[in-house]
Design brief:
The complex is a heterotrimer of chains A (148), B (499) and C (325). With 148 residues, chain A is an all-alpha fold. Chain A has four helices and no strands. In chain A, helix 1 runs antiparallel to helix 2. With 325 residues, chain C is of the alpha/beta class. Classes of the chains: A mainly alpha (148), B mainly alpha (499), C alpha/beta (325). At the A-B interface, helix 1, helix 2, helix 3 and helix 4 of A face helix 8, helix 9, helix 18, helix 19 and helix 20 of B.
Chain lengths: 148, 499, 325
Amino acid sequence: MQRDWPDILGGLILTAIGVGAALWAALHYDIGTLRRMGPGFFPVVLGAGLFVLGLVIALPALGRACTAPKVEPWTLLAVLAAIVIFALGLSRLGLAGTTAVTVLVATLPAPHKGWVWRVLLAAAITVLTVLVFSIGLRMTLPLWPRLS
Amino acid sequence: MTTWEGLLFGIGFVTQPEVLIYCVLGVVLGTFVGVLPGIGAMAAISLLLPITYYVTPEAALIMLAGVYYGAQYGGAVASILLRLPGTPQSAVTTLDGYPMAQSGRAGVALFTAMASSFVGSVIGILVLVMLAGWLSRAATAFGAADYAAMMILGLVAASTIGTARPAKGFAMVTLGLLLGCIGTDVNSGAQRFTFGQTELLDGINLVALAMGLFGVAEVIANVRNPDRQSVAERIGLRRLMPRRDDLRRMAFPMLRGSALGSFFGALPGTGSTLSSFLSYSMERRIARQPERFGKGAVEGVAGPESANNSAAITAFAPTLTLGIPGDPIMALMLGALVIHGIQPGPMMLEARPEMFWGLVASFGIGNLLLLILNLPLIGIWVAMLRIPFNYLYPAILVFLCLGVYSVRGLTFDIVAVAGIGLAGYLLAIAKFSPALLLLGFVLGPLIETNLRRAFLISRGDPMVFLERPIAAGFVVATVVLLLLPLWQAWRRRSAHELQ
Amino acid sequence: MRFIFTRQVALVGAVAITAVPAFGQDSWPTAPVRVFVGFPAGSSPDTLARIVTDELAERLGQPIVIENRPGAGGVIGVQQMLVSAADGHTFGTTINGTLTTAQRMMDSTGFDVAEDIIPVTLIATSPLVLAVSADSDIDDLESFIAAAGVEPEAIAYGSVGQGSGAHLTAELFAAEAGVSMLHVPFTSYAEVTTSILGNEIDAGFMAPSAALPFVEAGTMRMLGITSSEPFAGAPDVPLIAGNAGLPDDFRAELWNAFIAPAGTDAAVIERLNTEIVEIFNDPAIHAQFLAIGWQAAPGSADDLRQRIADDTAMWGGVIDRVQAQ
């Protein structure tokens, strides 16, 4: 039998987050009194609540069957990498440079083969981005890679 | 000036070419920036602020207001077609709007959103005109305890949205509330869960959270999904317009949504978000087939869209009559007036009636313009889905990153989108509702500060929640809502025993 | 998008090539100047900065870009200014709290005022007023102090957050008057005003511009003002200094200043100071400032340095008392 892993793992992760947040808050922030609640009051209550809810989700799921969802690790990696590259490249490569690189990385997992369309797409999106954001919306961003 | 004289005066004022042009400019620009993921009304208004130095204060306010509600129309387009909500209100629209688009009914979904927005705005305008004074009194009558009780009711009412198991809904709301704790605590100044990152001092960027949970998660899930690549094939031009059946289904949700939105809109801060979530959960509760919700129910688009648009209009009541801005965007608009030497406040209505009536009339005319502008555009928006996903999603990613960056110019927020996107993807796989997380995140800090404030002011007396009539009403309603399922279960069982 | 001004079009292109080494005074400025503001567009620190930089851009012959980096009460704006290279074309404006109290109120601001920041000039100051609802029995400073003295926390007052200028001013006032009040933090003056009008809290320390419209409408009353001289924006309000038993030298003001990152050429600082001070020779600028509730107050770089030192010491004492509570 295929177990209901999404609910089991999801519930346990939430439980862990709840415990972690409540403990961290209890150790670092003042709980206060009802009259003058401290910064720790809410996180501790919410963390405890999340701990309970996580268990309520995970425990009944132990005996339940479920079709396993499909996970796409490579797509995940490529898309997240593209976003991080965009963030880090913005000040170094300029808007145009970082957009082109981001598009090329983002298209890596695309099912359509070949590289010509990827380059053309990168060029097209770069032009569009510069037109919309730099010229249209007047965002103050460096356009080209820094020379120094 | 009586109401009708005022309205006629206002319409006469706005239809002057030199004023109308700014109204048109505002709504067109608003729609445009609203469609761009993450570039909301806030960014667009800050962009236009320099122009307002050069035009009359009335024209400036009419233009900025046009951007404000125009962006809501545009935001619905991005939410329905691409699941890219920039605000929590738009996140509600994705719940049924996006499934409609995926099943080839994008045109109908967009029509529903636009018609509902229009109806919501018109009702909002009527309420604003007739009840402006009453609405602003309501805004000052609400104390900290009342706000806290109201928002807790909202959370409880909404927490079963978009999820089959109530525990998963409550868990997402709680997680959202917990994420809302990140940043500087207003009451004590303590820096909670910031781990030395100054970028986190004001909390997680809301747009980054919405974009990561919805947009990025959706892109990852669909890059290699053959169904997503061929959505275009399912779209026929004939399906652009709603059937009679759709129209019948959307009529009452629109009216109910507008009523909710008109009331909650007047309460500073939360009106728009709270009313769209409440409208959605109300429609699902009273529907004959609640199981259709989340799979493309017209009512799930019509109710919330009319609610958030009427709320956007009545939100001007405290802003105009008391000079108290309900949200940062309103504050920005008041800032534009101050530059012109107009001090917003309780006297503004008497001192400058043309400001109030001109603005009210511009709401009506602006929304009509939006409808006229957007209905023909539906075909073009839908055609966007014909672009193969391979070509579309890299552009979505770049635009989304820039949208997030535009909020406060920190690359930290873009990196955060990647992390939130990962979480959003995992939540989607495990079928947890990101909309509820967003609701908890938005309301969390408000609930916390109001609850703590209520206890401070009452010097620690919890009776404040029962002694204040407004708070007591919400507390009773919350208790009823929590007990209702138990009572229903009991009745079902006794009916069963009778048989 | 018809509304693009030619100056700003020029600037978009020009900003693309900003990475240039430092310059002497002869050629400065050779590139567009960036001014970081730690508050959103349309806020009062932003408006002050725009009024000054509009004039400054013409005098310097280069466009000036306002970079809004809101967050953490202005601290993010200063940080972002410091991250950008000190190439003589990067500056910032800031409110007093960022340079005087933030170091005490926050775990870490990520910068050292004395080491990382060069003062250029003070731009403007603003006092705070003590306001109550018009329905209140309290009608002057003496009856306010009497009401607050009945028992500790008899009076609840609103501020715009823990450690904000309004909060610290109220605590300074309470310490000088020998009373103890209940602090209720809010996030904006609009919220404080709503709460006062709803008779939820008794009073608030707030910017004159936030209180004046309600005073004119007859729904609020101002009991005193924290400046050392009558404020031109509200000349009728009595000074707190020397009134109702408070010391004659009582003064608590917010201010706004122009700053530069450490490493900026001294000649550039001097030129900038001269130009900004000259801008204020125009009475129209004073009037524009006053319209949004600020008193123009240009001075020398040393004046600003002294002001930072004085205020850091004075508020430090107040923070000691608050944190000891």
